[in-house]
Amino acid sequence: MEKTTEISQLGEFGLIDRLTRDITFHNKSTVRGVGDDAAVVEYPDTEVVVTTDMLLEGVHFDLTYVPLKHLGYKSAVVNFSDVYAMNALPRQLTVGLGVSSRFTVEHLEALYSGIRLACDIYGVDLVGGDTTASRSGLVLALTCIGDAPKGDIVTRDGAKDTDLICVSGDLGSAYMGLQLLEREKVASAGDPEFIPKFDGKEYLVERQLKPEARRDIIEELHKAGIKPTAMMDISDGLSSELLHICKASHTGCRIYEERIPIDYQTAVMAEELNMNLVTAALNGGEDYELLFTVPLHYHEMMEKMKGVKVIGHITKEDLGCRLVTRDGAEMELRAQGFNHMSSPVAETEEKP
Ligand code: ADP
Ligand code: MG
């Protein structure tokens, strides 16, 4: 049997020590980490970005099919993804943790092994956090600090008429991974011996459970000397994110259905589920790819850049936001994003 240690055996400080011991730092901006009232960071001449993500059990993740190590890895990576989307580099991470009584020390060690793996891979320092009891399962609130040389930060509001619209990777696969995991959960009917069937769809499961932030694309753009005019990461679906850029930049856009990058396994899964593939690619969440715009004269360079696809261009605001379908018809882009705030889960709690 697996070893289990009740949190009460270690106490809060023993637990924090267990989760954060032997941390080594990657960044010179980290002056002090865990162990004092606050961490200390020092950024003498760069611009600093700060981002927070909050994840609640039953709303954002389901521990029946998400291993704790993967949850830790993913929650850190999605935080880093927000920093890269500002064209900055993630440096420090803090972790707020709400834990209900069913979690043991070993559970939290598994969670932290994922968080710490992500920190090591992306060169981020875990410098602090807070730990408290929760009455509603596991709660995670991660805050990442990053930096970029002055003038390098890219916001959502800089897209200009005729700019090219680019996306990295492929879209819709994480959403299809979630559909697959949900399907197998239903099929298992709670039987712990049940072996889920993922044959030929491993990529979808990986995209859902172990996403990566596109540091490689940020580095590629930097090497090529290209600074996007606007950028964000795609967490709520391409349509929704592109509309954010257009609204903030006071522009319209035109993207082409045939150019939207979709993986083969995503297409197979959509067919099996009888789902519209393009709808899934436009609105499926959690891709964590980058969406960015660059001036038109970079066209040739962008066409050649590995892992990036030009899917359309920015237009004047009064032309609206449009999708050109394969048969040449035009549709208005609409955000049907995968918005957790509107999910029925939020409605089931009693009012205070
Ligand atoms: P305080 O009572 O001053 O808020 P805590 O006892 O909460 O301090 O935390 C002690 C130290 O441990 C602090 O440096 C804090 O950042 C760190 N810490 C607390 N909880 C966590 C956690 N879940 N993960 C990482 N560091 C943590
Ligand atoms: Mg505290």
Compact summary:
The chain starts with 6 loop residues before the first helix and ends in a 20-residue tail after the last strand.
Round the mean pLDDT to the nearest integer and report it: 93
- Provide the spatial order of strands within the biggest beta sheet: 8-10-7-11-9-12-13
> Shape, please?
globular
- The Cα radius of gyration reads 21 Å
Most strands sheet: 7 strands, mixed
Query: What assembly state would you assign to the polypeptide chains in this entry?
Result: single chain
Bound molecules: adenosine-5'-diphosphate, magnesium ion
Structural class: alpha+beta
In total, the number of strands is 13
Percent range for β-strand residues:
15-25%
The number of helical elements comes to 10
Helix proportion = 25-40%
Describe the structure.
The two termini are 41 Å apart. A seven-stranded mixed β-sheet has the order 8-10-7-11-9-12-13, sandwiched between helices. A four-stranded mixed β-sheet has the order 3-6-4-5. With 352 residues, it is of the alpha+beta class. The longest helix has 18 residues, at 105-122. The chain has ten helices and 13 strands. Residues 338-349 have low confidence and may be disordered. Strand 4, helix 3 and strand 5 (125-133) form a beta-alpha-beta unit. It has helices spanning 7-20, 68-84, 105-122, 173-188, 202-209, 215-223, 238-249, 264-272, 277-283, 299-304, and strands spanning 30-32, 40-41, 46-56, 89-99, 125-133, 139-149, 164-168, 230-234, 251-256, 289-294, 308-316, 321-324, 330-332. Bound molecules: adenosine-5'-diphosphate (ADP) and magnesium ion.
